[in-house]
Amino acid sequence: MQVAESTPVEHHAFEFVKASGGIEEYRLTRNGLTVLLLPQTAAPVVTFMVTYRVGSRNERAGLTGATHLLEHLMFKGTERYNKDNGTAIFPTLQRVGAVVNATTWFDRTNYYELLPKEHLALAVEVEADRMRNARVRDEDLASERTVVLNELDRGENDPTRKLLQALHATAYFAHPYGHPTIGWRSDVEQVSAAGLRHFYDTYYWPDNATASVIGDFDRLEALDLVERHFGAISAAPDPFEHNVTAEPPQIGERRVTVRQAGQLGAVMMGYKSVAALDADADALDVLAVALGNGKSSRLYRRLTDQGLTTGVFAYAPRLRDPGLFIVYGALAPDVTHDEVEAALWETVQQVVTEGLTEAEIVRARNQVVAQEAFGRDGPYAIASQLNEAVAAGDWTLYTTYLDRIERVTPEAVQAAAERLFVRDTLTVGIYDPIVAENGVPDAG
Amino acid sequence: MQVDAAPTLAERVHEADCGAARVLTLPTSADRVVSFRGSFETLPDFGAGEELEQKLVTMMLDKGTLRRDRFAVAEALENRGVQLHFSANGLRCGFSGRTLRDDLPEVLAVLAEQLREPLFDPDEFEKVKAQHAASLRRSLDNTGTQAAGALARRLYAANHPNFQPDSEAMLERLDALKVEDARAYHERHFGARDLLVAFAGDCEPAPIAKLVTDTLGDWHAPTDGAAFATTADPEPPGRVEVPIPDRQNLDVRFGHPVAIRRSDDDFLALHLGNYVLGGNFSARLMSTVRDEQGLTYGIGSSLSGFRVEHEGYWRIAVTLSGDALERGIEATLEQARRFVEGGITQPELEEKQQTLTGAYKVGLATTGGLAGALLTNAERGFDVAYLDNFPKRIEALTVETVNAAIERHLDSDRLHLAIAGTLPEAG
Lengths: 444, 427
Hints:
The complex is a heterodimer.
Chain A: E1 14-20, E2 23-28, E3 33-39, E4 45-52, H1 66-73, H2 89-94, E5 99-104, E6 109-116, H3 120-132, H4 138-156, H5 159-171, H6 185-190, H7 193-203, E7 209-215, H8 219-230, E8 254-258, E9 266-272, H9 281-292, H10 298-304, E10 309-315, E11 324-331, H11 337-354, H12 358-374, H13 379-392, H14 396-399, H15 401-406, H16 410-420, E12 426-431
Parallel strand pairs in A: 3-7, 8-12
Antiparallel strand pairs in A: 1-2, 2-3, 4-6, 4-7, 5-6, 9-11, 9-12, 10-11
Helix pairs in contact in A: 1-7, 3-8, 9-12, 9-16, 10-11, 11-16
Chain B: H1 9-12, E1 14-18, E2 21-27, E3 33-41, H2 51-60, H3 70-78, E4 83-89, E5 92-100, H4 104-116, H5 122-139, H6 143-155, H7 167-176, H8 179-189, E6 195-201, H9 205-216, E7 239-243, E8 249-258, H10 266-278, H11 284-292, E9 299-304, E10 312-321, H12 325-342, H13 346-363, H14 367-379, H15 385-395, H16 399-409, E11 416-421
Parallel strand pairs in B: 2-6, 7-11
Antiparallel strand pairs in B: 1-2, 3-5, 3-6, 4-5, 8-10, 8-11, 9-10
Helix pairs in contact in B: 2-8, 4-9, 5-7, 10-13, 10-16, 11-12, 13-15
């Protein structure tokens, strides 16, 4: 990425760490908070985001869903910002036009505000306050638990989501990627506020977080704001335990079937993949694009264009620990699971035996280049990509991405495919809907 | 988009007549990226179910042109990483895309071919039919789609653009359609009737005007078009249930018609009023039914289906687990009644004025957001200055004007109720 680097800002409370792709990293020396700055003046708005390095991979049995439920409770208020005194977090921020939300996933939790630039101070103040001062009360959990149970029911309505969960639960015996980030129902039903408070007190500290400021702002003023509001928070009292149970090697194909009243089936195949920072990861990104992106892609041409499926995708998120490389096909009417599974298998095996063509590699690269440019269109889009790079363990994954993709060769893709697409590390998920005889599910 | 003394959109947007097309171009400081949005009037015969033909035609647009087969079309775009989508939306069809600046000439050339000279290969048409049939069948399991459709059918006759035919009826009609039907629909309805295209991003107005003139400027304007109902034709207020097995989350939609159009003076007052009830996370519905009572994950209200060409409806949407269904419905209705009877307060007005004017700035932070806002505004027949003046119009609203609009147009006793999912007694 060709971006001119500017001179770092000197600020008494921060040390400059490094710069890459127009983003500067600083460290708040008093407590270890990482700060990323990316000034952009395209529009008079700014995004402020705090990414915590905690996700469902940090959850133990009985506490699944804690990351997500805690994220909900973080909007219930702090001693300072709460509904009782008319300063609840959502109204306080939305009043100034902010887009406010938070998300959770396997490796991270993020809170963000996209707002008119003159209100940046408010976002920084709120996020600093709830880093250590969230109330996490019993009464708040009582009403929010049922909200999350409804969210869980909504997810259960969706066959693709159910299939994805079943695939992970089958592929992972030991590693926490085997349970969904929203948690297992009984844990959501039973977790206590004390349990969530313990989780909060373990992971919500400045030295386990990265604060990103993206958009139309002055760097020195932004660092001042961060220091003013986060500077008084101490570092975590204990070291973080980020090592989790390693998944034992998978030797032998696994299969899982999801049944639910419905209309048309689907096949999802997940291969054990590599960690985000692995040497093969860039080649696998190119492979995922070539397999599943657009109507020129291998999967589209082999399956959807031939009438076997109505939709296909290849999905290979880069996670901190080895995740799954997934290929998927939604069955067209009158097509069997076996036909689609065989076609998915053949399509990926063809890459192993023959590799991709030079034209496919070039197309995939061009798509990545364009996606990257599109991904810089607006400060929230950038924050979202940066967030995943922070979670994977290295934010420069985002800024160095194009250069690394440019270096991916056909040979590297074929070699990575050969290592990846192995029958013994495959888990196959089948969505086999229960269809009533007249084609309409039985309502009874 | 800019604040304070920055140039207004009206000053920054270049408008040009490019043959049959009207083009709006907004250069921004975006790096290399250009977003574009376009649309044209198609006027399907809703009473005859022609939105189905319209949908199939838009699906056929990327299945080859008279000059290149479907793979050549895909490669021409995807080799450049271009995103291009076609859509069918009631009275109009449209396209939207995002490209790198240097690829714009080739992208517009391909786009024009796709719009003007689709191949209509019979084999591809059969595949498209099968895909759409699958999509309709999958929608039978979707609680949101089924609840929304059931509500629309209570409020509108089949010849209103807001009507939604039921999936089973569409499947039956779909089965009988031939490629000739799609080709004929394209010939009669696709063309440069009120063709509008908006560009925003790293682009220059003069070259863009020339590109559009060269590619779409001489596209014919069709004269065929069906009359459509502009007002609702509701059944008496009532409740309809769509049982779907194995769906423990139920989607619930409340609604009643509102006899104004998007261009009506009352629209913005009603828009702000509705925002107090259910426009965002801090609105009354979320803060009571979700935050205090814990009955739902998602709840909100909106003014839906309003166009300058026809009237729309007030809608409240909530998702409820089976064990909370009736309590959730009652809690939602209680908020609706309180809102209609008591109106909004001065602090609520001020809060939502700030929210709407701030959110307006945030919404214009991307090239896609800008191109979309320019197109939507032009479709309404409003000039660009309307966008600049939008915050002022919101700030000029008073509690009295908002509450008078609520009183004139909203009535909780007229609300219909549609529910889809596994009903507790049936589960």
